[in-house]
Amino acid sequence: xxxxxVAFYWCAACGGxxxxxxxxxxxxxxxxxxxxxxxxPVALDFKRTDVEAMPDKSIAVCFINGAIRNSEQxxxxxxxxxxxxxxxxxxxxxxxxxxxxxxxxFGRDALTATxxxxxPSIANGSNVKPVEESKTPEGTLSLPKLWNTxxxxxxxxxxxxxxxxxxxxxxxxxxxVEAILAGKLPAKGATLAPDIALCDECSRKDTxxxxxxxxxxxxxxxxxxxxxxxxxxxxxxxxGPVTRKGCEGACTSVNMPCTGxxxxxxxxxxxxxxxxxxxxxxxxxxxDDEIVAVLDKIVDPAGTFYRYSLPASLLHRRREPQxxxxxxx
Amino acid sequence: MSDSTTPQNFEPRxxxxxxxxxxxxAADLAGTARMKYAANVRxxxxxxxxxxxxxxxxxxxREGADAVLLGGCHPGDCHYMEGNYKALRRFFLxxxxxxxxxxxxxxxxxxxxAASEGDKVQRTINDMTAAVRALGPLSMEKRALLHSADLxxxxxxxxxxxxxxxxxxx
Lengths: 329, 170
Known about the structure:
The complex is a heterodimer of chains A (329) and B (170). Chain A has 329 residues and is of the alpha/beta class. Chain A is 28% helix and 13% strand. Chain A contains 11 helices and 9 strands. Chain A has helices spanning 16-22, 27-34, 48-53, 71-83, 92-96, 108-118, 170-182, 271-281, 288-295, 301-305, 322-325; strands at residues 5-10, 36-39, 59-65, 68-70, 84-90, 133-136, 139-142, 146-151, 161-163. In chain A, the strands form 3 sheets. In chain A, strands 2-1-3-5-9 form a 5-stranded parallel beta sheet, sandwiched between helices. A two-stranded antiparallel ribbon of chain A has the order 4-8. In chain A, strand 6 (133-136) and strand 7 form a beta hairpin. Chain B is of the alpha/beta class and 170 residues long. Chain B has a 4-stranded parallel beta sheet, with helices on both faces. Chain B is globular, with a radius of gyration of 21 Å. Chains A and B meet through helix 3, helix 4, strand 8, helix 8 and helix 9 of A and helix 2, helix 3, helix 5 and helix 6 of B.
């Protein structure tokens, strides 16, 4: 009997998810023995034409990481969807839009202007900007079209399962692969991680006060952090109470507050809204001025609470004036 | 309905979350006292202003609301002791987030209205309706559709896609 075929692909991502696959260490040998990897651009030399030549649904499972923000990524995930029986959104970017999703606070034109013109380290005297087509003596060259709005994977194609995390914890990846190989998968649409908040598995859980209140927020470099005490109780902005567990406190165990990469539990629709709500609620101040003074320490609410989930949020993106809101093609 | 979104005939749609014990009772009082106020508000009763969740506000915007009004008991008067303080803290943080999302301050408002202040319900709703009328439609739901234009453009015009170059994706 032939081995099940597996594919990996990356879109708008940093490469950390690919690292996570390599982080399987010895376990990856077991995976390689059990499956046939038919497409993995970062590690193996297969081309798009190879995928196009495969029969539809011939890939058992395709792991896709990264957000979708240009026409080429969209074509590739559509193609892989056609060729695959199962598609797993792998990592925060594919799951909820991820860090690239913060581009939705600005939009295509503002991002291009910053990257090619405004940043101090750019020397772009001839004002070169990326264009979709450029004519050269040798012929016309083309680039993918950059979208105005960054999207999560499920906003572009049908997704069967989600593996959250930035990157997904090795243990969850192994669990997912084993479940797929054994054919013991939960119902379609499930997130392949425990459905309870991080505090539940945090090593500091026992030190979380009965009534948690914060009088002042600190950033991690501003204070000497107690190794054992609940980070929120120390005034560090930890999103553990609203974030799905499964990472075994990878950050909190080394004195870094949770930033919410695992996303929400199944009871929450909009991660950032719930995170913002939870954090604001525990502030002790009662008057307008005092509350505003405490909140001023949170310098970037959008980037703090929606670091991994702006595209998947209820509002998706920053509102633009009506005239600019219309897609320019 | 399409008329109401043209600038000349724009009638703001305001979703209000009023707490059961103070503001909702005040709205009831305004009604029994036959006070007239703008018919632009759709009131939803919650047991406490502390029940308000930013998800409610964002969902209202997504479903077509032009503004959201929150009403609760005056500080110190909360039926559940602390709920209105929680609402106040969330409100301030949420408003800062909404500003970074390009949504104007006047589209979200929190007012303390006691059960006896029917006139304040009238005044608040009239003021807010006028302010939002001046701002114009928010149209968050239409914008969400517009931005999927990125996607539909790619689907509608396959011929406009860049030709697959050799080794394209890899």
